[in-house]
Amino acid sequence: MQILLECVNCSHRVPATVSRLHCESCGGLFNLAYDSPPGGKQPRSPLTDLARNVSLGEGNTPVINLTRTAKYLGLRQLWAKLEFISPTGSFKDRGSAVLISAALSEGVTEFIEDSSGNAGASLSAYAAAAGMKAHVFAPANAASGKLDQIRIFGAELHAIEGPRQAATDDAERFVNERGLPYLSHNLSPYFSEGMKALAYEVNAGPASGVRHIVLPVGNGSLLIGGKAGYDELIAAGVISESPRLHAVQSEAVQPLAAAVNGYTWDASDAAPTVASGIAVSFPPRLKQSVAAVKESGGTALTVSDDAALEWQRRLARDEGIFCEATSAAAFAGLEKLIASGTIHPDETVLMPITGSGLKEPVQS
Predict the structure, then answer these.
(1) Model pTM score
(2) Residue 114 pairs with which residues in a beta bridge?
(3) Which CATH number does the domain 63-90+193-359 belong to among 2.30.30.40, 3.30.565.10, 3.40.50.1100, 3.30.420.10?
(4) Which member of 48, 81, 124, 343 has the lowest number of beta carbons within 10 Å of its beta carbon?
C-alpha cells in the first residue's frame, strides 16, 4: 500500500514523511492519502513496520452507561467512552502512538512540540518509550500536573510566559534555530490519523449505532480523526451513515463555533477559561473541523466556565467520574443541545471523556 501526503487545499501529493508539514505549492496542511480502499475491520494506517511501533496500551478504552446522568437529562441512553484512562490520562495518546511510531521508523531521535499540556505530556511519554529526546514548549501557567508529566518523562520543558500562542511562536523559532523535526500535534496529519480507531471501537462495542457524539474541540484532532474513521466505515460498507458530531467550545475561545454558525469572532476576543484544553484561538485545521461538523449533520456551540465546572462536580458525584473541566464542558453542551431540541430524549448519545481531572487543580 502506497501512502502519500495530500494537501487539503490544492490536492498536491508528495511522499509521506513526518518532517513535512506544509505543501510546497500553496502552503496548506496535509492529510494522509492511501491508494487502497478501507477494509472496514481496522483503520488504514501509515505504520508499515509493525515491529517498531511504539505503544503504551492506548486505545480500546471502556464504554459505560451513564444511567443517573441520562435520567437527569431525560435521555433514553447515554454512553461515555473513558478516554481519560489512557496511559497519560488523555485521548491524545492515540495520536502520539502513531506520530512517534512513524517518526521512529524515519530515524528521528530528537524533536520539538508545543502544547497546552495534554499533548505535550503524551508525546513526552511516547518519546521516552521510543528513546527519543523531546523539547516541549508549553504555557508557563499550564496546569502543574501536566507540566510535571512533561518533566518526569525526561522531556526538556520550555515554559513560556504569555498566551498559548506564545508557546507555538517560540517553538517555531526553536525549530528554525536547531533544525530539528517539528512534530506538531496541531499540524501533523499523523496525529489525527491515530484518532480514527475511536470510531471503529465505538461501532464494534455496546454503543454501536449511536446517533450523536458530543465532544470538546480545540485544535480538532479527535473531531477530524473520528469523522475520518466513520468515513472509512461508510466506504467499506460497514455502516450507512456517521453519527452527528457536535463540537463544544468555551464562550471564552470560540473560533469553530463562529465559523460553523456564521458569526464573527476574533482572537483578540479570547479570554481565560477553565477549559484550557480547548482554548485554541488559531486552530490550523479549522476548515477541516467545520467540514467534519457540517458533513456529519452536527452542530457547534459554546458553554460557560460555570456550566463546565458544575458538570465536573456533577459527574464526580453522580457517576464517580473525575474528568478535567475541558471534558465536562461537553456535558454542558449536551444539556444545551437537549434543551434546544437538537438531541431528542429517545436518541442515543456518546460522550468521549477526554482528560483526567487529576491533571489540574479543582476550581470552585
Answers:
(1) 0.96
(2) 137
(3) 3.40.50.1100
(4) 48
Tens place of pLDDT per residue across the chain (364 aa): 789 999 999 999 999 999 999 999 999 999 999 999 999 999 999 998 776 799 999 999 999 999 999 999 999 999 999 999 999 999 999 999 999 999 999 999 999 999 989 999 999 999 999 999 999 999 998 889 999 999 999 999 999 998 888 899 999 999 999 999 999 999 999 999 999 999 999 999 999 999 999 999 999 999 999 999 999 999 999 999 999 999 999 999 999 999 999 999 999 999 999 999 999 999 999 999 999 999 999 999 999 999 999 999 999 999 999 999 999 999 999 999 999 999 999 999 999 999 999 998 898 7
Domain ranges in the chain? 1-36, 63-90+193-359, 92-189
DSSP state string for 332-353: HHHHHHHHTTSS-TTSEEEEE-
End-to-end CA distance of the chain: 52
E strands along the chain, which residues?
A: 3-7, 13-15, 30-34, 63-65, 77-81, 110-114, 133-139, 156-160, 212-216, 244-250, 300-303, 348-352
